[in-house]
Amino acid sequence: MDKKNALKVENLTKIYSKKTANVIRALNNLNLEVKVGEIFGLLGPNGAGKTTFLSILAGTVIKNSGSVNVWGYDLDKDPRQVRSSIGIVPQEVNLDAFFSPKNLLELQAGLYGIPKKDRITDTILKLVSLEKQANSYARSLSGGMKRRLLIAKAMVHRPPILVLDEPTAGVDVELRHNLWNNVRDLNKQGVTIILTTHVISEAQEMCDRIAILNKGNLVKLDTTNNLLNSIQTKKIIFKVKKTNKINLENQNGMKFSYNSDNEIVVSYERKKHKIDEIISKIKNAGIEIYDISTDEGNLEDVFIDLTKS
Fold first, then answer.
1. What is the chain's Cα-based Rg?
2. Structural domain span for residue 207
3. Residue-wise over 23-35: b if at least 16 C-beta within 10 A, else e?
4. pTM
5. Which residue, among 122, 144, 118, has the nearest Cα to 131 in the 3D structure?
């Protein structure tokens, strides 16, 4: 297999056509690579093509053209190998309420044709912190436990790649935190992770690299750090004793605005200006500064900028 890439997609296109001349390009010549061992984020607004992309990987949607290579296997030539190289954790919780986690994993292993002696059910339950619930009915599990059980189900055949589709949708803060710790642990053990999420701060925190899709097109693919560094403008918020209405409107690309009587917000280009230059402007206007806070901008700013139609 290609030593560096867990997944390689070239010119992947999927068109949904209605009987009229209405053609929807769900994916338009998509090219991307996911490296072995990374946590890779897939972001995009609704209708961007994320679900179509994952459905093609899962084998439930047939592509129109292009090539998909998973763990060294070509989707057209080795569909079974592709399926065994990938574990997909769906958005919806689809568990049989009357099975225990242990039974569910055993059943899933049977569906994959894994002989009894090669099954690692107990290990997987430990990995997702469900060993204590191994023999409880699935219906008695909390929401977060059910999510972790879905991850366990996707892992019974030991796939080197795990795909998480909106894994924290409808999950509370503590469960979300636990879930990400589980995912990080799996990644440390060498599992390559691909995740889609609506929560952009999660992607910022979790992912090594991020691809941003919009209307079937890849609009950006870069490391999380590079994406954050691409934000041109920074903001500084000054809490002041009293704002004198001085002429601070637009000075050499610095924009000054007043939030309230006691706050001045300055936005400026990070490459052009230094903070002390801005502070002295305000001091020279005879304004007393109480407190200073900065807003570095976050991935959401990049996302909004790139997906503006």
1. 24
2. 5-228
3. eebbbbebebbbe
4. 0.80
5. 122
